[in-house]
Automatic annotation (TrEMBL):
It comes from the Bacteria. PANTHER family: PHYTANOYL-COA DIOXYGENASE DOMAIN CONTAINING 1, PHYTANOYL-COA DIOXYGENASE DOMAIN-CONTAINING PROTEIN 1. Keywords: Dioxygenase, Iron, Metal-binding, Oxidoreductase. GO terms for molecular function: 2-oxoglutarate-dependent dioxygenase activity; iron ion binding. This is Phytanoyl-CoA dioxygenase. It holds the Pfam family PhyH. The keyword Oxidoreductase applies.
Length: 265
């Protein structure tokens, strides 16, 4: 595999471990972002020049493997970021993207604004997604900005440092993990955390720890907000207790920090 120039300093990686997210500016081009927006407009069937067709506060496009989305997800800058946070050869390149929550200025508030973490797998006979301490099937939550997003444009809200509160909740559930239905009821422990907003320019990407608590909110601006929120799959599994000499990646180090354990195995 090619060796890529690092995009984050050691200090920035430490901030990711402490805060639970980091923004990579200019992760992909504005031309690619525009192509992604055009593809999503086609999928919605709505008219970008006629706000009277924007009849819902949020419209979801569920999945796509069209070229501009895959190009945006696999630029050299992003691959370098994945390497730095997850580890070289420890993640799976994205070949499909989804979902795409497109948020519109609308008189009615959206109904999906609860604070939550994202699950990554399902268990038998439960419609809710699950997650476990090793974040099975999710190395990162990745938020792609296909449009400029200001404070008024319905940016995702993030509870800074909340990913450190989640590991102690998950540890007793063991490898089987916990249903989001159960976990969400326990996230009140993160309510005192400061909030940050996922704002930036088209082409920016937020790399988010899988346990970071976040929420949608109402769009108060004028232009629709285009975003993707795929998971980056791990190659293999994350390691929480690897024993002496284990070199943990940034995601694993944050989990261990939440459990009160050192970076060293």
């Amino acid at each position: 595999m090619e060796t890529l120039e690092p995009v984050f300093t050691d200090e920035q990686i430490d901030q990711f471990i402490e805060n639970g997210f980091i923004r990579l500016d200019h992760a992909f081009s504005k031309e690619t972002a525009q192509a992604c927006r055009a593809a999503l407009w086609r999928e919605t069937g709505l008219d970008p020049d006629d706000p009277t067709t924007w009849t819902e506060p949020v419209v979801r496009v569920w999945e796509s493997s069209e070229e501009p989305f895959i190009e945006a997800a696999n630029t050299p800058r992003l691959r370098a970021a994945y390497d730095q946070l997850v580890g070289r050869d420890r993640w799976v390149p994205m070949r499909t993207m989804g979902t795409f929550p497109i948020r519109f200025p609308h008189k009615n508030p959206p109904q999906d604004v609860a604070w939550h973490v994202d699950g990554s797998y399902q268990s038998d006979n439960d419609p809710f997604f699950w997650l476990n301490l090793r974040s099975r099937d999710r190395a990162l939550l990745v938020l792609f900005l296909y449009s400029d997003v200001t404070e008024d444009d319905g940016p995702t809200r993030v509870r800074v440092g909340s990913h450190l509160d989640v590991p102690p909740l998950l540890e007793p559930a063991g490898e089987a993990g916990m249903s989001l239905r159960t976990l969400i009821d326990q996230l009140s422990c993160t309510e005192g955390r400061p909030e940050a907003l996922v704002t930036g320019e088209a082409g920016d990407v937020y790399l988010v720890h899988p346990f970071t608590v976040h929420s949608a909110q109402e769009h108060r601006g004028k232009e629709p907000r285009f975003l993707a929120q795929p998971q980056l799959f791990p190659q293999g599994t994350l390691v929480v207790d690897g024993g002496p000499g284990t070199e943990y990646n940034a995601v694993e180090r944050a989990i261990r920090k939440g459990l009160g354990r050192s970076d060293q195995g």
